[in-house]
């Protein structure tokens, strides 16, 4: 595929040579300036001709249209940026200019690429004539504007997003319009490719990014031209053979000669295109697909996918697929995503599957593992790719591979779940055998019956029964017709089995009912289950119609079937609970319009029987919610349902009063049967009171009497007390609702106030109960009551409710706090296998206690959510609370370990780790938390110096070690705030403290260093790794040197506005593009000798540091102050030197270009760590690459199979020198 010789920065095409490129040719050819435009040697016109050409261009164009009277021209960059002109008209105008004066037109095109990179400089005609490519690029690098790190391709906003599209479109249209003549003149394309190759090897990220995008789009356009040439060659060959097959008398020899000449011209053009594509591929792609910048790598992978899909005969082979396979291990999700989308375009075409077999076998495991990618978008596309692979062949993916995708249908991330659901559906439900063609469409024997059973079996095997809604939601898009076949589901539950059929087990029937309920809910609510959506979206008109149709169908089917199902499963609590939720989704009008009243009566009878049979809370609440759904005053069935509900509740309340009176008269000799009857009846009433207003039965008096008796005797069964507390709570809430709505009587407000306060006192007394369950119930109700009857109750114009405001007294606060301490943050009993602390509920007002380090791991989610809410209310007070909690923990540690504790102890490290976690909760937006962080540091500094030294004068303050904890928050300070905090710190420091270097003073030293680190860092410029801290001198012509100012000293005193700053100069060798020299599968720690490196292989730029630091003038106050300052400067300089050496050594070990500050390995570390694993992977494989060789005409001969060119990552290892490079050989 690719020749062994690497591409130089400057080159030209030799028409006589095959694909080798010269390295000493630049933008001009002085020896052939007078050559004619067109095919042949390239050349440029004399200066006099340029002037004449400039006169022709004086008329120019504005926005792609010709302008007369010498109107000032807009540059190509400005035209493309404005986007107001048709791209084709802009290109046509440029072509006309090129035909009249190609040098000036080409110069304009060169400046177009320079300006699109964000460079303010421009290539002059003089530079164009006399300077080499590398010299021009170096000159443009010097003139690059470093005031901002942005350039057109990275700028935000609609204008720049449109610019990127226009930029790519311009290149494609340019090649398309020039494909018949200009691109073959060996001048325009030679110059453009040479320029783009040189820019793509630049140290300037903007140049590299822009030129790579341009080169890849240029390559795509050339591939399209090559494809058209191939088609034309096939057509010409077919015409030639047809003419030649004629008899001698009818054969036209002139036509044969014309066809032969045309075929020869097409072949020559194809050879030219091959040379151009080889130059771009070897000069740009093979270097930039492993660039240090993820965006550049993504561009390369995206475009190679386009080439393979567009011209599969030439590019869809192992020589090109291997680049995609290697890059699937890229560290950045953006690049991995491009790999998967590129492969999807290939696997989608089933005709190409045979060419992908070897690639699939080698990289299938990696694709399967990417289904669990940490980037959700990557995981989604990986699953979609696996679905395409599954459709191409059932034998490729093993059962283990499929199972790794199956369980993702329960993922909380909906796109992943939907993709997994589609994979599951394609695998298990899409196959249809010939024996199924004659099956009925509905009923127990239909095809869907077996598929529904398969769904049930899968659901049970997953052992995640509570996630039925997630399974249904995952399969809803692809399997809605199956999940909406409720008739078949009912038939499987009610009909008798036919001979030879295996009946569903009880467990399978339970699962089927749950899936059926989830499908009904999904059809009626049209939104994903909880935890799998960002909120309700606006439905389209089509979706609304589908929802109404489904709801009508559900009502018509289940209105008849539900009473029968309840009759069959009336004793099974789990089945009944699910079945009773179905009426919530009915269209109740259909009971009347469909004449289904008798089925409604049957349903009400079944619900009544269920209430009388069951005492399970879930079943009773389901019955209550069913009555609540049916009792809708808007429908005519309301009176009938209301009567049935009233009769049921009358019986239960009368029974409760009768049983309660007998039960209380028994005294201490209570019968267990009577207690059970009271408990079960009260449980039914409580379940209904949750959704229905039962205040007319005066349940407060009976329940209060029951609770009071329990306190007096102390032997009341806990279940009775729990339900009595809950029922009384509902009574108060219903009364509050009536008072709030204004539907109550005159004295109801006073009565409610008395009842509420009496009930709260009752709950407070039950906090001292012997039963833990009773105490938990009382605590929960008290917390709810304190929230409901707080001062917020009078908001929104409800001042009339002010008498109901209830504030807890000190006694109640103490009891609630004691409950927290005794029952929330405690260890489990020994018989509990979980081994975690137990939590029953939590109070939002107990933030301080919740921040205990001991329970952070167990209740971290609750703590972080509480902290988030408190931060939204008041950021500063939240920060004060955090620092106060750390101070309390620090004081507790001092009381336990003493003042001479070890800072490496687990207690101190634990507090520091908690501080680190607190720091992470402030997020990345430093402006929003600026005041809070500053206040946190202020309080922390004051605490550290609050207590004097226990060792007497001259010793460190007692709490000085707290500064080590406080340093965890230094990274959250803005640069300018670090100076302010540092000045505040110096107010508490004495002169002697600044001189101390003992271990006990290390917290102060480390905290000061954390405030100084990055205080004067400057924003990185677009020149990667070069800071714009100091302005570039116009006299300095050395483009290979970038100066960066290291942090100044920030020790400022009240008597000096500026202090000494240590300035260091760091020189960087700008010699080669930052590029990941390590292969995608291996990481080399061997650095090649610099003198052995070839320019086209890339090498490491090395930092060199000046030995003469520059010092700014000092404003001296005293000789002693000057000495202190000088010592500080020397210490900081030494520290910076050490850091610089460390960074340099680390970079050398990585064997990568050092010019990129944000460079990261493009491969995951876990990829391939074993040489033996590499050998196993590549056994029997050949990895030689070849030049781009377009396939010959298919009509001349059958296309021979390409020699397999496999994916051996080890083949890119050059053992001769130990440096990992791409190694290319000609393929036989």
Description:
By secondary structure, this protein is mainly alpha-helical. The protein contains 45 helices and six strands. Strands 1-2 form a two-stranded antiparallel sheet. A hairpin with a 2-residue loop joins β1 and β2 (65-66). It is flat, with a radius of gyration of 40 Å. It is found in: Nucleus; Chromosome; Chromosome, Centromere. Residues 1-68, 1031-1053, 1182-1201 are annotated as: Disordered. It comes from Electrophorus electricus.
Explain the layout of strands and helices:
Elements: H1 47-57, E1 61-62, E2 65-66, H2 76-82, H3 87-100, H4 102-116, H5 125-130, H6 133-142, H7 158-178, H8 188-200, H9 205-244, H10 253-288, H11 294-310, H12 312-315, H13 318-327, H14 333-347, H15 357-369, H16 376-392, H17 399-406, H18 414-428, H19 447-461, H20 468-483, H21 486-494, H22 506-525, H23 541-568, H24 573-579, H25 589-593, H26 597-613, H27 617-630, H28 638-665, H29 672-689, H30 699-713, H31 718-741, H32 748-766, H33 772-788, H34 810-823, H35 847-850, H36 856-873, H37 875-897, H38 906-920, H39 930-944, H40 962-966, H41 975-988, H42 991-995, H43 1002-1012, E3 1062-1063, E4 1066-1068, E5 1103-1105, E6 1110-1111, H44 1119-1150, H45 1171-1177
Antiparallel strand pairs: 1-2, 3-6, 4-5
């Amino acid at each position: 595929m690719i020749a062994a010789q690497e591409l130089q920065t400057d080159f030209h095409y030799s028409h006589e040579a095959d694909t080798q490129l010269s390295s000493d040719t630049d933008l001009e050819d002085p020896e052939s300036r007078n050559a004619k435009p067109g095919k042949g040697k390239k050349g440029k016109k004399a200066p006099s001709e340029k002037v004449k050409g400039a006169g022709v261009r004086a008329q120019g164009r504005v926005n792609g249209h010709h302008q007369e009277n010498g109107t000032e021209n807009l540059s190509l960059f400005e035209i493309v940026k404005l986007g107001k002109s048709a791209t084709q008209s802009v290109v046509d105008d440029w072509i006309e200019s090129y035909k009249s004066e190609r040098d000036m037109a080409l110069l304009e095109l060169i400046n177009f690429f320079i300006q699109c990179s964000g460079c303010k400089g421009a290539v002059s005609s003089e530079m164009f004539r006399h300077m080499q490519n590398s010299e021009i690029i170096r000159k443009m690098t010097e003139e690059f504007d470093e005031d901002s790190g942005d350039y057109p391709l990275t700028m935000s906003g609609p204008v720049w997003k449109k610019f990127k599209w226009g930029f790519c479109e311009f290149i494609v249209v340019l090649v398309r319009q020039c494909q018949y003549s200009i691109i073959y003149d060996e001048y325009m394309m030679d110059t453009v490719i040479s320029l783009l190759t040189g820019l793509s090897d630049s140290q300037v990220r903007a140049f590299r990014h822009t030129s790579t995008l341009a080169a890849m789009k240029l390559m795509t356009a050339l591939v399209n031209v090559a494809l058209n040439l191939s088609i034309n060659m096939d057509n010409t060959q077919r015409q030639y053979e047809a003419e030649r097959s004629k008899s001698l008398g009818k054969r036209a020899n002139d036509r044969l000669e014309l066809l032969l000449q045309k075929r020869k011209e097409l072949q020559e053009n194809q050879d030219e295109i091959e040379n151009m594509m080889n130059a771009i591929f070897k000069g740009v792609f093979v270097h930039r697909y492993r660039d240090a910048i993820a965006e550049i790598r993504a561009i390369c992978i995206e475009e190679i996918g386009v080439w393979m899909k567009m011209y599969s005969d030439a590019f869809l082979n192992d020589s090109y697929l291997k680049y995609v396979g290697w890059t699937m291990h890229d560290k950045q999700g953006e690049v991995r995503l491009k790999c998967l989308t590129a492969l999807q375009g290939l696997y989608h075409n089933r005709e190409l599957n045979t060419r992908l077999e070897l690639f699939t076998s080698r990289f299938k495991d990696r694709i399967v593992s990417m289904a669990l990618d940490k980037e959700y978008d990557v995981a989604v596309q990986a699953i979609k790719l696996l679905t395409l692979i599954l459709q191409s062949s059932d034998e490729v993916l093993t059962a283990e591979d499929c199972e790794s995708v199956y369980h993702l249908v329960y993922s909380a991330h909906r796109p992943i779940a939907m993709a997994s659901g589609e994979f599951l559906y394609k695998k298990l439900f899409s196959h249809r055998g010939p024996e199924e063609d004659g099956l009925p469409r509905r009923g127990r024997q239909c095809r869907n019956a077996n598929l529904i059973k398969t769904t049930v079996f899968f659901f049970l095997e997953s052992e995640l029964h509570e996630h039925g809604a997630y399974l249904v939601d995952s399969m809803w898009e692809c399997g809605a017709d199956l999940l909406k076949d409720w008739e078949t589901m009912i038939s499987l539950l009610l009909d008798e089995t036919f001979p030879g059929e295996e009946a569903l087990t009880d467990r399978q029937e339970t699962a089927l009912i749950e899936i059926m309920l989830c499908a009904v809910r999904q059809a009626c609510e049209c939104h994903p289950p909880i935890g799998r959506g960002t909120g309700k979206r606006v439905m389209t008109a089509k979706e609304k119609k589908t929802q109404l149709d489904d709801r009508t169908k559900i009502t018509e089917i289940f209105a008849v079937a539900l009473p029968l199902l309840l009759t069959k499963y009336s004793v099974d609590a789990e089945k009944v609970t699910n079945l009773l939720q179905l009426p919530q989704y009915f269209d109740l009008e259909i009971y009347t319009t469909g004449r289904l009243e008798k089925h409604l009566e049957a349903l009400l009878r079944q619900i009544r029987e269920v209430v009388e049979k069951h005492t399970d809370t879930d079943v009773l609440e389901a019955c209550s919610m069913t009555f609540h759904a049916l009792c809708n005053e808007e429908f005519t069935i309301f009176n009938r349902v209301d009567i049935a509900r009233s009769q049921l509740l009358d019986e239960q309340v009368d029974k409760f009063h009768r049983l309660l009176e007998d039960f209380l008269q028994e005294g201490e000799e209570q019968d267990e049967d009577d207690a059970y009857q009271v408990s079960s009846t009260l449980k039914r009433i409580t379940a209904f009171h949750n959704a229905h207003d039962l205040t007319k039965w005066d349940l407060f008096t009976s329940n209060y009497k029951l609770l009071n008796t329990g306190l007096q005797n102390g032997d009341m069964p806990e279940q009775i007390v729990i339900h009595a507390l809950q029922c009384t709570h509902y009574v108060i809430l219903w009364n509050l609702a009536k008072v709030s709505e204004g539907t109550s009587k005159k004295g109801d407000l006073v009565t409610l106030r008395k009842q509420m306060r009496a009930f709260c006192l009752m709950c407070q007394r039950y906090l001292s109960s012997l039963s833990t369950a009773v105490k938990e119930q009382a605590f929960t109700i008290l917390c709810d009551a304190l929230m409901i009857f707080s001062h917020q109750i009078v908001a929104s114009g409800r001042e009339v409710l002010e008498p109901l405001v209830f504030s807890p007294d000190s006694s109640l606060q103490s009891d609630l706090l004691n409950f927290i301490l005794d029952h929330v943050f405690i260890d489990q009993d020994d018989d509990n296998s979980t081994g975690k602390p137990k939590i029953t509920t939590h109070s939002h007002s107990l933030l301080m206690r919740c921040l205990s380090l001991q329970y952070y791991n167990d209740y971290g989610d609750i703590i972080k959510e509480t902290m988030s809410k408190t931060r939204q209310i008041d950021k500063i007070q939240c920060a004060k609370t955090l620092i106060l909690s750390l101070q309390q923990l620090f004081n507790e540690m001092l009381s336990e370990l003493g003042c001479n504790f070890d800072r490496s102890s687990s207690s101190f490290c634990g507090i520091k780790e908690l501080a680190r976690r607190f720091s992470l909760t402030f997020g990345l937006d430093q402006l929003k938390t600026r005041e809070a962080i500053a206040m946190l540091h202020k309080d922390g500094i004051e605490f550290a110096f609050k207590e004097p030294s226990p060792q007497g004068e001259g010793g460190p303050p007692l709490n000085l070690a707290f500064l080590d904890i406080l340093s965890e928050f230094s990274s959250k300070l803005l640069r300018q705030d670090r100076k302010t905090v540092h000045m505040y710190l110096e107010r508490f420091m004495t002169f002697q403290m600044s001189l101390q270097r003992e271990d006990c003073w290390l917290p102060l030293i480390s905290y000061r260093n954390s405030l100084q680190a990055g205080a004067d860092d400057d924003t990185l410029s677009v020149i990667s790794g070069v800071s714009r801290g100091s302005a570039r001198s116009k006299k300095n012509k050395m483009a290979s040197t970038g100066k960066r100012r290291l942090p100044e000293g920030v020790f400022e005193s009240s008597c000096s506005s500026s202090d000494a700053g240590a300035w260091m100069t760091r020189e960087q060798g700008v010699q080669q593009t930052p590029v990941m020299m390590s292969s995608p599968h291996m990481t080399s720690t061997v650095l090649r000798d610099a003198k052995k490196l070839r320019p086209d292989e890339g090498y490491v730029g090395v930092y060199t540091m000046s030995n003469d630091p520059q010092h700014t003038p000092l404003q001296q106050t005293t000789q002693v102050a000057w000495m202190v300052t000088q010592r500080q400067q020397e210490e900081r300089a030494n520290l910076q030197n050490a850091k610089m050496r460390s960074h340099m050594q680390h970079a050398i070990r990585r064997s990568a270009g050092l010019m990129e500050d944000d460079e990261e390995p493009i491969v995951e570390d876990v990829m391939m760590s074993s040489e033996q694993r590499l050998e196993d992977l590549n056994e029997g494989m050949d990895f030689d690459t070849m030049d781009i060789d377009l396939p010959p005409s298919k009509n001349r001969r059958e296309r021979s199979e390409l020699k397999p060119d496999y994916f051996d990552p080890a083949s890119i290892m050059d053992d001769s020198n130990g440096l990992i490079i791409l190694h290319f050989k000609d393929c036989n």
